[in-house]
Amino acid sequence: MQKAARDCPFWLPSLAVCFFILSPLTYAATETSPQSESPRRLLNLSLEELLDIPVETSGMLTKSTPQHAPVSMTVISKEDIAVTPARNIADLIEIYVPGAIWLSHLNPRIGMRGIIADRNYKFLLLINGKNMNNKNSQGITLEIQNWDLNDIERLEIIRGPGSVTYGPGAIGGIINIITRQGSTAPGVKAGTAYDAAYQSYGGYSSYGYDGENMDAYGYFSFRKTGGVHDSRYYNILGSDGSHGFTGKEFHPGASVTDYMEDTLNDPQFKGHLDLTFFKEWRLWARFSNQGTPYTGGGGGTAAGGRENADFGSEVLPARAEEAKAIAVDLTNKHELSELLALDSRLGYKNEAYFQYILGNSSRKFDEGIYNYPTDRGNVHYALSEQELYLEELLHFRPFDNHEAALGASWSENWIRPTSWFHSAVSGDSAVAGMQNRTAVDGRYNQDVIGHGFTYGIYSLFGELNNRFHPLFNTVLSGRMDKAEYMSTYLFSPRAAIISELTPKQTLKLIAQQSVRMNTLIETYLDDYSNRKSNPETLQGLEVIHEWLPFEHYGLNTSGYLNKIDVIGWDGSKSVNLGALKVMGVEMEAKYQSDHVRAGISHAVTKELDWKRGSGITSQGISYSNYNTSPAAGLSLQDNGNDLANFPVQISKVYVTVEKLPLDFFCHTDAQFVWGYPGNRNGVEMYRDAYSASGRNNEAMNNLSGDLSKQNYGGFNLRWNISAGKHFLWGKQKFKVTLLGENLLGFKRYFYSSGDSQRYPDKITWAEEPASLGLRTDFEF
Amino acid sequence: MRGRPGVKRRRGGAVLGLTLLLFVFFSFSGIPETRSEDAAYASASPALEVQVQAACIFNFIQYVEWPEQINDAAQKEFIIAVLGRNGMSATLQELVAGQTVDGRKVVIRPVNEMGQIGLCHILFIENAHVRTFLESGDLVREGRLTVAAAANFTRGGGMINFVKEEGRVRFEINPDAARKAKLTISSRLLQLGVATGPER
Fold this sequence. Notes:
Chain A is mostly beta strands. Chain A contains nine helices and 38 strands. Chain A has a single domain, classed as Maltoporin, Chain A (Beta Barrel), CATH 2.40.170.20.
């Protein structure tokens, strides 16, 4: 294989970024007076500003300040969201969260600390603390690809496990969307947005009321996205090693699906109502939907798409998904006495999830090939998941420095076929496309699931938060979950020591175990087959150092070591994919003042060891322990020691300047991905396999040469800028923002779940285009 | 976009250099930074909530008018008394020591018992003493603003009570109790707080 450019040495980007993060040259030369020593700095704030400081944080059951939470958290404020050229929450995470990435598959696949999968079920999505995950099969299916972000007060992103606080499933991280309320967004607001390359346009409006005993908020948005026309996907078809960019270069005269288009041309809608009353009560209701095509090999080509009369000359994606949900949540926070407080939550969610695969000949229904995605032969998933959730959490605070919390929750889930989308699939099995057979009696999975099932999950959890001495504070937490169709009890304990080395330096040591149960459908099928369904278990150690060396500056460093027993699904049963050990370091420096917000971060993620499970052939974790024989005479063997689907080093930088002269503002951000060596290991594995087989395979040589020429798995850069101006007409405010996204080009790689064909068959990426956008915002 | 890897890395270096230069530039720039959002950078001290409450107490001074009699009686000092020893008096001491109000030096006076409360402009009552205080006959004293962070303090006759809402400090005000003490509370403070009290 030719090497077009020498790979960047491992240590060089780390050294360069560390220099800027730690160098005293980056610190202000201004004097710090005694008055500016914190907490005296608080005296410089107005009363309004003091009332805006968060004194409690997420990430724990007991109430604590951000400095005492045993988690690594990034907060993305509404001010950040307003100026950032992000298409959606996945982009915001990629811009602001140290070490985080996303890859394409269906909706974005989030990755943090080396954890990423072909479904988003290793991460938890919350809205105002309420779990919004699709538990039956997919994980996160909502919100993260919504273009409209104007109802978000802030995002709280926790990197790393959080099962002990939020329940089984959160081993990779937590995304908590905090929505606006009448008290934080009073008055009338409206706006429009347009993104040129994605043919995306829409608008929003909201009204907030902040009253004495009640505040109310209503929000509505609409966004239609046609997708990037004439998208450039690089694909490998696998059977003969042919490869190249889709479109006219590959299929002369053909067209391809539009990148990031709305599934079935269904625009995104979002509606949100929020009431807080009598101080203790909060009721919110929400509707949102999102959907996007599969961008893997085949799906992005005309060969995988199909013209359809309903869609005119547009080519349908070969595979796509869509999710729609309504959720209602009622919470109460009641002070029982000076020592006791009770938090209660009653929630309901109804999500409809739909996924189709065109022309899949292994459908049970042998009724020929259909054109319309919702025709029975094409449906892969068409189900609704209804959840009723109840949680009680009792806080006990006998002394100011000691607090305990004890809670319980119950979740009842109903999985049923859905008619939310199109009536063609109603009445059929909820999972019409699960054509595999069970492991016990050979029945089709879709017949076992039939018209659905009911599934209960019960949890007990508690926490002790003790501040014995500034140098010694402990947080001991534990959680036990029991899922109805799993014989195994799930335990997630956590022990943390938090030490205030100085008033400006905090050191946190955390040891924890976090578990993820397999999806409801998969554990149900395991139970039907009398198989024990083991959870995915992460055991980890983390050290966090937080330092405020000067006024306006903060430095955070996290180091972690995780051992994960990874599980998967082979179509008929849960399997042990293998044991993974990963270590990493995340360093971040931030500057924040009234006019400027800036940050720089560098993350290193390194595989220490990967042992694939017995009988496992292809997997997307790593090529360092890989064994399969896809064709006679070809044997794929171990190669490299890096994670597949995850870069070793990522640097991020952003600068926002507000309140420039004449009320201008500007922002720029860039993400530097210093290569994906694990992905390249896969290509080398094939090259070595052909070489070892004694066959001089011209197709493989051509492929590997072309991938090298395309810089596959090499350095990848995304750069965004924005600028705008505020206008004031009396009490009315108006803002215009111009956006420049991805100005230098970026490869959006497809998550590959491992190769098993004669050629690497899952290498795909989309060449994301540069795009200009415009936003307008009004406040009345 | 197809491009040679070397070219992209050079552009990447240029972008990194440019953005880092911007970062450093604004670090050294003369743009006045008068205020800071403390969401991410507040003190690592454990009692952030108490610090914010203490800073709010200091801010309340500019929104309240005291009768002349109390000012005449305490000519050189502005006295904040703290009933209890659970952290607020140390925080106030650290925060406001050396500050002045209308030419008067702010003094923090911790007291252990109700009988020790002497002349003061503001009295903060720690939780352990709130019930005793509300049941005492000394609820309202002319020229004294009472503040606490306890359930039902304003409903029980106290004047300002700190609460928490959505993870942030808020406060309730009993304007009638303040009027009885001949204190004038500005409409701005009433807007920022939530009016409560037995008569509402």
